[in-house]
Amino acid sequence: MTTLVHGTDTLTRDALTVLQPGFVGTTAPDWLLRRIGEGLSSVGLFGRNIVSPEQLTALTAQLRAERDDVLVAIDEEGGDVTRLEVKQGSSFPGNYALGSVDDVELTRAVARELGRRLAACGVDLNWAPSADVNSNAENPVIGVRSFGPDPDLVARHTVAYVDGLQGVGVAACTKHFPGHGDTNVDSHDALPRIDVDLATLHTRELVPFRAAVAAGTKAVMSAHILLSALDPHRPATLSPQILTGLLRQELGFEGLIVTDGMEMQAVAATYGIERGSVLAIAAGADAICVGGGLCDEDTVLQLRDALVSAVRTGELPEERLADAAARVRALAAWTQAHRARGAGSGPGAAVQEGTAPGADIGLVAARRALKVTRGERPHAPMTSAPYVASFTPIANFAVGDETPWGIAAELGRLLPGTETGSYDQPSVDAVLSAAGERRIVAVVRDAHRHPWMTEALDGLVAARPDTVVVEMGLNEAEPRGALHIATHGAARVCGRAAAEAVVGTGA
Questions:
Q1: 379 is catalytic
Q2: DSSP 355-388
Q3: How many angstroms separate the CA atoms of 385 and 435, rounded?
Q4: Whole-number Å distance between alpha carbons of 496 and 351
Q5: N or C terminus of the chain: which is more exposed, having fewer CB within 10 Å?
Q6: b or e along 343-373 (b: 16 or more beta carbons within 10 Å of the residue's beta carbon)?
């Protein structure tokens, strides 16, 4: 294990300690290992860093060969947002599916199995769960990442998720504080606003976070959103009133406060990542997440130097930076202790899908989350290969466009010869022409938010009343088709469950 460089002073080490950067590649670059040796205490992983459980296990071992207490973080929500299975689609349904079932023991079991797989690969901090109350059905970035629109439902499932993760030694990072649900702007692109009164915030947005803090969540992630009733001038990530006054003092949270990605435009476009990072630490944040977009050594050095400079000029109190670094080290110690207790089983034993108790819990949950509505016309299960028309909206940044979704692949396994096409604002005639005599399965995502999708569906069902419709986003639009299947998410297991329902073999 590399020891800290003797020439690196305490201030510089603290500045490195509060960074959670990303990198490019499936092995750690030399610059990252060098900075870990100098004091960098956390590393964030994204889909670009992962190809298999075995490779991920080797990567985390490489990082810990430099420093055995390094925090390895990941954005693994399951469902639509997956990094472990970015090229295949998740083995777990997301929050909306779990909330629709509303069985907290199921949610706890899903989170426990997801956490088990993370821990087996050496990952010990998960930037999840999303505790946002999705009160705005037009929300372009939360949607199925939320357990639902009811604060109490979101609260009880957030607690179950935190319990499941942390019970296997993976620290939960409950997000996006103080709540990103009532927005119609994606903070990756611009600064969202929530202009409701304090009473509404306390009875809606804050309910799940209070519950998560009471349940002992080890970390909380801030949101880049402006809540005018709490701070009319700065987004939550940069607001002392919100991070220190509300989260620390009023809610009593003593764990790690992590920022959302600092390169997101909601902060970067106005403040820049360097000044934004200084303001975030000064406001009460303890760890700066960066790396979803900016993932090179220069970014780490710029942020390190900005923090050091801010302390030396008096803009950032040295004790605030030291406190932030201490909280990072405290969480690292907690995760290190859990790894030590679980070392006897070996890292490779638990990563093979299907080999451990509960390994199929994701599919069990996806099947339970299905809502099937039959149309007025009789529907017979499909026995011949259909044509799958996938109506594909632009994916938000959090979900990304790398992860496959839909049911065509799963239907193809059950009905060989299934054909498929992907459409962006299609004409009905184009779909009918491509389908020929085959039955049509129309797959949509948030049809209620896309008028072109609704129009296409109405046209298809009018022309071909035996069309089956599968909604893989929010289930807000009126059911249509001979069979309407709401999966409550677009994970791979949701597609499998829907395919089973189409052919009549669902468990």
A1: no
A2: SSTTTTHHHHHHHHH-EEEE-SS------S--EE
A3: 11
A4: 21
A5: C
A6: eeeebeebbeeeeeeebebbbbbbbbbbeee
Spans in the chain with pLDDT lower than 50: 1-7, 344-357, 507
R_g of the chain, CA atoms, integer Å: 23
pLDDT of residue 379: 77
Buried b (16+ CB within 10 A) or exposed e, 193-223: bbeeeeeebbebbbbbbbbbbebebbbbbbb
Distance of CA 316 to the CA centre of its chain: 31
CB of 230 within 8 A of CB of 155? no
**Residue 25 burial (10 A CB sphere; 0-12, 13-18, 19+):** exposed
Give the separation between CA 444 and CA 252, rounded to whole angstroms: 42
Catalytic residue among 75, 260, 286, 446: 260
Write a three-state SS string for 103-161. Answer: CHHHHHHHHHHHHHHHHHCCCCEECCCECCCCCCCCCCCCHHHCCCCCHHHHHHHHHHH
Alpha-carbon gap, residue 129 to 171, rounded angstroms: 11
What is the b/e burial string over 261-297, where b = at least 16 CB atoms within 10 angstroms of the residue's CB?
bbbbbbbbeebebbbbbbbbbbbbbbbbbbbbbbbbe
Q: Of 188, 450, 484, 488, which residue is the catalytic one?
A: 188
- SS3 assignment, position 246: helix
Distance separating alpha carbons of residues 191 and 195, to the nearest angstrom: 13
Locus of tokens 């299934």: 418
The token duo for 295 is 């993932």
Q: Record the tokens describing residue 328, joined without a space.
A: 């990072």
**Is 55 strand, coil or helix?**
helix
Tokens of 450: 């896309």
pLDDT of residue 346: 39
352 to 52, 53, 113, 118, 422: CA distances (angstroms): 10, 8, 12, 12, 32
Known active-site residue 260: yes
Dihedral sign for Cα atoms in the order 95, 81, 386, 435: positive
Bridge-based pairing state of the strands 483-486 and 371-374: antiparallel
Q: How far apart are the first and last CA of the chain?
A: 50
Q: How many CB atoms lie within 10 A of CB 427?
A: 12
Q: What is the pTM of this model?
A: 0.92
CA distance 333 to 337: 6
Which pLDDT does position 46 carry in this prediction? 93
Amino acid of residue 15: A
Q: What is the pLDDT of residues 395-410, one digit of tens each?
A: 655 666 778 889 999 9
| Per-residue pLDDT tens over the stretch 453-495 | 999 999 999 999 999 999 999 999 999 999 999 999 999 999 9
